[in-house]
Amino acid sequence: MNDGMSHGVNGTNTTGGLNRADGTARRYHAAVWDEPLIMEQGAPGRRGTVPPGPMEGAGGGDPLPAGVRRTTPPDLPEAAEPDVLRHYLRLSQQTMGMVGISLFGTCTMKYNPRVNELLAARDQVAEVHPHQDDGSIQGLLEIVHRFDLMLRELSGMGRFVFQAGGGAAAAYLHACVTRAYHESRGELAQRRDVITTAQAHPCNPATAAAAGFNVITLPVERDGHPSLEALRAVVSDRTASLMINNPDDMGIYNPHIKQWVDIVHEAGGLCFYDHANFNGVMGRIKAAELGFDACMFMLHKTFGVPKGGGGPAVGAYGCTPELERFLPGPLVVQTDSGYERRENPEGIGRVREFLGNLPQVVKAYSWLLAMGADGIREAADISVLANNYMEARLLAVPGVTKSFDHLTLRRLEMTRFSLGEYTEQTGVTAVDVQNRMTDFGVDAFWLSHEPWIVPEPFTPEAGEGWSLEDIDYWIDVLAYVMEEGRTSPAMVKSAPHNQVVAQIDGSSLDDPSRWATTWRAYQRKNAQRANAAGR
Amino acid sequence: MTVAHPYMPNSTPDAKTAMMRAVGITDVDELFEQIPADHLTAKPIGLDAGIAAESTVRRHVRRLLDRNDSCAENLNFLGAGCWQHYVPAVCDEIASRSEFLTPVWGTPSSDHGRNQAWFEYASQLGELVGMEFVGLPVYSWGAAAGHAVRMAARLTGRHEVVVPSTLDPERLAVIRTYCGPGEGNDPITVVVARHDPATGRVDLADLEAKVGEATAAVYLETPNHLGVIEADAAAVARLARSHGAETIVGVDPISLGVLMPPPEYGADIVVGTTQPLGVHLNAGGGVGGFIATRDDERYAREYPTLQVSLCDTIVPGERAFGMTLFHQTSYGSREDGNDWTGNSVYLWTVVNAVYMALMGPQGFADIGETIAANSAYAARRIGEVPGLRVLWPSGFFKEFVVDFTGTGRSVAAVNGFLRDRGIFGGKDLSADFPELGQAALYCVTEIHTADDITALVSALNEAVTA
């Protein structure tokens, strides 16, 4: 098969961007190690690590009761330490991540300062036990308290807790707080509805439903958000809470959000601000000033904490003083003699064990110190500026359209685009383009959360952490790939060609006879298929 | 900002000017035209100015952290939901790799290495717990148990779960949250079955009285929160099955080199912690939870989690990985999906895979034997201290309950005494389990030595006579 990059390297400069001669193209190819599974490696008797034997004096008689012992050893790899190390180093090399360029929209892919990794790896964090007495963790508790105060500054809320292990967990926490709040007023039986919009992240309706509420999802209307009339039509004395983001993933800000909050409040409901898209508005708006009762920040997005491929993360949940009594315990409070953890008697208990992912709180605190009030403002400015820059360039690429393009006001930190027209013309889809872009060292853009709202969506987000050169390269690659899709659609539809592996064949993934989440299941099903085929 | 900030490549005047020119504006504020003026905060953000110098930030945070004491320089006997095990250096090396540390999602082809690591996690954990279908992890053991109970409720259409009275209150609180206290649409009632004070195991007679036609699941842990191995687990599973209920078993996988895999005594759903598998204590920020079952559609279709499956590529003979049953998650189906999912602890998943690969079958056998022997030895020595009594002196793993009632001293006082001697005594149980008196849960693992136990016993002797 033709090497995809050769077009960029040797082909004519059809995009005005990708050209090896002027240094704007890269001769990228992912590392390919054809690395077998760790379960397929090693040899009998090899050891990767040797735990210490029983301590001196221990032993003598079986400490375990009769009948509970394992009789068949687990079928795990037997591999030496260097081999295990090199295996996982190779797997890391076979993961592009942020070594490439990742403008994965809605996730705010920003730089994660390594100094914070070094700080969180210190024994004073890594080797702290959560049940240590308060006196022995004053530094950690002080960081939690200080960071709480900083988030209060950014939101106007009364207190933050960090127990939720991600944004979805914070949304769930809000649903639980909502339950406790209405129960305390004797209205829970009546307050059954949580209202959200089609633009809200799926975790909002999903966690509301899991907490036992009926979900009402308002559709987006011509103005880019549901109308006030649509909201009024569903708000009632059954309303428990509104769960909403603003701006949405299209970069559209709902200018009526204060009225929304007023309408819900007048009916007795709570209002939760999912601040997933805080990056573009931080320093400019405060959730509490808009009237919200609670909000959530994702420290692994907006506050410089690494995502780890999906956690450990923190959904920092903040609320007004009125709701504070429903927060999960323990709360970190300042006393005359220092800091202590204190249970919250009327609180919802726990949404997760312990205080939360404290190493991530340490990292976020350190990041926010480094950024400061001016840095926060600057980051918001740059992220919105970069998005508008991207938009200007992307809309000049034939076949790229913008969601709700009749709305002329400038979008905030991201814009959802559509390749719908392009796909109709070429048969090349957004996923095809995404796959092909990885051949150039550009990792996936985000398409869109459900529902898509526009056909063949793609949602890049530049943020403040990617250079103008990276952003330009990203756009050049997209433009190049789209042009290639017109002239050589098969090249794009069969992509990637420069990646670790070829495009996956997903036909087995939802087939019970073929899916395999473990090697044992795979081997069994493979053998069954071979037998059935009479081999 | 007066200087370009190192985290922001485009914070130079040139970069901003170039972008503004392309956008056709002269002032960045023009970009915020969507936001009504009365939404903008009137007050400037009350934070200090940023600190561009990394050395200054580092020193500031270090100074705060230096006020912490840790289990590295103290002798630690705390467990109770978070356990100090040795973390091999290779685990830390892999955890710090940028490719694993910083990304979110790529494509299946550009994420191949990480997906393979995740598949290896599920495959190896599946070997330990004896199950063929393993989801990607959730936030914690409590979260895993909570999701599993909800799976059982959907599977059976019933709304009660029976749990043992020995359950960790911290974990129980999470489970209760997941079960939806109050008047939710489908609240799941948590019924607590007593434990037998003589053995520390679940009281089968009481359990029998509480399991019935309304029971969606019986949830049992072994070893239980108080360290006791539930030797009657098979009888519990039989009882649950006879009433059409699911048996959910919670385990600490580090025990499974020596303890029987839960399906062998009747578990339908296995949950547990992932923290002991190569993850530091992290002040409680290292926890994670797993859910595993037979590879049976009935169970697979109830998972709320993401899963990676081995699959093919369009090139014959080439292997790859993709998400299976994505549509049934909340990402795929919003409120119509199973429960909800989101970010989890996926970096630890890679670390867990590394740990299990390093350990291998012999490593898990060895560490299990060492922990069982060390904890039994420590319990014996502690039991010899005048006035102290090990409540259930045999049949436990890693943790055991020490009763201080006979000393006339509170656990808090004893722990304060130990603390001054660089020892973190066992978790004080007196508030959560008042029926046990002044009792503490001691945790002894492979990291402890005979000298450590001697130091502890010596300090305990002093504490109870001082």
The succession of helices and strands of chain B, N to C, reads HHEHHHEHEHEHEHEEEHEEHHEEHEEEH
Instruction: Give the overall pLDDT of chain B as a whole number.
Output: 96
**What would CATH call the class of the domain at 119-370 in chain A?**
Alpha Beta
- For the record, the count of structural domains of chain B works out to 3
Q: Termini of chain B, distance in Å?
A: 61 Å
Q: How many separate helices of chain B?
A: 14
Low-pLDDT runs of chain B = none
| Corresponding CATH superfamily of the largest domain in chain B | Type I PLP-dependent aspartate aminotransferase-like (Major domain)
State which percent range the strand residues of chain A make up: 5-15%
Percent helix of chain A, as a range, is: 25-40%
Helix amount of chain B, in percent?
A: 25-40%
Query: Rounded to an integer, what's the Rg of chain A over CA atoms?
Result: 26 Å
Structural class of chain B: alpha/beta
Tally of alpha and pi helices of chain A: 15
Sheet with the most strands of chain A? Answer: 7 strands, mixed
* Shape descriptor of chain B: globular
What is the end-to-end distance of chain A? Answer: 32 Å
What's the CATH topology name of the domain at 119-370 in chain A? Answer: Aspartate Aminotransferase, domain 2
Largest sheet of chain B: 7 strands, mixed
Condensed summary:
The complex is a heterodimer of chains A (535) and B (466). With 535 residues, chain A is α/β, with parallel strands linked by helices. Chain A has 15 helices and 13 strands.
Keyword list:
heterodimer, A: 535 residues, alpha/beta, Aspartate Aminotransferase, domain 2, seven-stranded mixed sheet, three-stranded antiparallel sheet, globular, disordered N terminus, B: 466 residues, Aspartate Aminotransferase, domain 1, 3 domains, four-stranded antiparallel sheet, 15 strands
